[in-house]
């Protein structure tokens, strides 16, 4: 390649360049036919034409024969308290929204248009309308659509065939890819396991799935997105979620708890890795994981105060962290974290209006104000957040379906 060096696609699908989030195959979106980019089915967003200093440094160390880099994680054992989570799911939602600013009927129509064969695509539209216009069936989208329909108590037709499409993405290693033929990831494995839970369909190789999930846990107690990937709070959450839904336990349960609590900072929030700054994404992921493990959230009042302080007093949405941008996806994470802590944002009406302003003319939702609709992810966020803001959704559902 030009100027030699090591090239690696990296970045964030819906966050900021400095905040690691879910490393899906479609990590960083590049224009079609960009030199250096490649496609895997519908996922043509990985920029191998880019380099970054970290990759060059790690690669140079590897070339010099240094095959292991030690990361200095906190080693001090922190005391934790146990508090059983209420896992009863007698209801999902407790009625229709009454004071939201989103048009549910228009959203239902938009949601139906995403159906593709027996599955669901990211959007109702086909290429070449935009780089996210994709109706091919995807496990990520299917989970969101089925979750939304469950919250709205809408009929889910062809349940067995929907799951048959998703089951086809299970690989020999036991994990699931985004689609059949795509490599296994912890996140996409979660999408299938969560959908299996909703549909009450366990017709897949659960033992091999658990083997894959447990192979993603590292010696530090956390989970990476695939075997050999470093731990982070995001993927640790998906590991915990899958094991919880399948009534299993991590290889190193005590280390897992310590990894999670070690990511908490003095301000009460949690970071994506221990020793980094707090942000709302990882704060929810850590809180969710700890509650599913029946651990009381340390410094609960401090966490609540920090989360509530991230709400923008003028706009209504939440900042990722102090002095960082307002984030659509981050706002969902902040609200969900507060909901699991039995509280809500300070200015509820303002954020209801903010979500309403993100609804596009076609009924879908966009991350940006007054833009065309994005994907089923934005719809899932808006619907679930609106139900939380009216306290009409089961907290356990929020804990396991995210």
In this structure, how is the largest beta sheet organized? 2 strands, antiparallel
Number of helices: 14
Mean pLDDT: 85
Q: How much strand content do the residues show?
A: under 5%
- Secondary structure tally: strands: 6
- Low-pLDDT regions: 7-34, 36-50, 128-133
Query: How many angstroms does the end-to-end distance come to?
Result: 39 Å
Taking all Cα atoms into account, the compactness measure Rg is 20 Å
Helix/strand structural class: mainly alpha
The helical percent reads 25-40%
Order of helices and strands: EEHHEEHHHHHHHHEEHHHH
Properties at a glance:
mainly alpha; 402 residues; globular; two-stranded antiparallel sheet; 38% helix; two-stranded antiparallel ribbon; 4% strand
What's the structural blueprint in terms of helices and strands?
Elements: E1 37-40, E2 43-47, H1 53-63, H2 104-112, E3 115-116, E4 119-120, H3 139-151, H4 159-167, H5 186-199, H6 206-215, H7 233-245, H8 253-261, H9 280-292, H10 300-309, E5 318-319, E6 326-327, H11 328-340, H12 348-356, H13 376-389, H14 395-400
Antiparallel strand pairs: 1-2, 3-4, 5-6
Helix pairs in contact: 3-5, 3-13, 4-5, 5-7, 7-9, 9-11, 11-13
């Amino acid at each position: 390649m030009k100027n030699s060096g090591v090239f690696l696609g990296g970045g964030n699908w819906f966050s900021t360049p400095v905040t690691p989030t879910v490393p899906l195959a479609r990590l960083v979106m590049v224009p079609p036919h960009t030199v250096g980019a490649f496609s895997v089915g519908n996922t043509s967003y990985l920029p191998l034409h880019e380099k970054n200093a970290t990759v060059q440094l790690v690669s140079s160390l590897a070339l010099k024969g240094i095959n292991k880099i030690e990361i200095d994680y906190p080693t001090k054992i922190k005391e934790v308290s146990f508090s059983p989570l209420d896992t009863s799911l007698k209801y999902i939602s407790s009625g229709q929204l009454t004071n939201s600013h989103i048009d549910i009927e228009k959203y239902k129509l938009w949601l139906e248009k995403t159906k593709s064969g027996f599955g669901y695509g990211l959007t109702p539209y086909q290429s070449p309308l935009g780089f996210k216009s994709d109706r091919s069936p995807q496990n990520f989208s299917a989970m969101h659509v089925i979750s939304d329909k469950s919250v709205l108590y809408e009929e889910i037709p062809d349940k067995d065939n929907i799951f048959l499409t998703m089951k086809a993405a299970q690989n020999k290693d036991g994990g699931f890819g985004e689609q059949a033929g795509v490599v296994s990831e912890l996140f996409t494995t979660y999408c299938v396991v969560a959908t299996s839970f909703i549909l009450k369909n366990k017709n897949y190789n659960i033992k091999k799935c658990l083997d894959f999930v447990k192979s993603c846990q590292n010696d530090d107690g956390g989970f990476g997105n695939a075997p050999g990937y470093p731990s982070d709070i995001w993927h640790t959450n998906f590991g915990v979620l899958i094991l919880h839904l399948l009534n299993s336990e991590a290889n190193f349960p005590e280390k897992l708890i310590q990894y999670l609590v070690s990511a908490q900072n003095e301000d009460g929030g949690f970071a994506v890795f221990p020793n980094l700054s707090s942000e709302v994404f990882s704060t929810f992921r850590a809180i969710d994981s700890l509650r599913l493990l029946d651990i009381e959230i340390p410094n609960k009042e401090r966490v609540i105060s920090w989360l509530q302080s991230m709400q923008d007093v003028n706009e209504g949405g939440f900042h990722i962290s102090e002095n960082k941008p307002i984030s659509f996806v981050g706002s969902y994470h902040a609200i969900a974290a507060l909901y699991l802590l039995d509280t809500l944002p300070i200015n509820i009406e303002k954020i209801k209006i903010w979500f309403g302003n993100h609804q596009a003319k076609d009924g879908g939702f966009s991350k940006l104000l007054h833009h065309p609709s994005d994907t089923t992810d934005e719809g899932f966020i808006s619907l679930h957040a609106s139900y939380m803001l009216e306290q009409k959704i089961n907290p356990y559902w929020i804990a396991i379906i995210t």
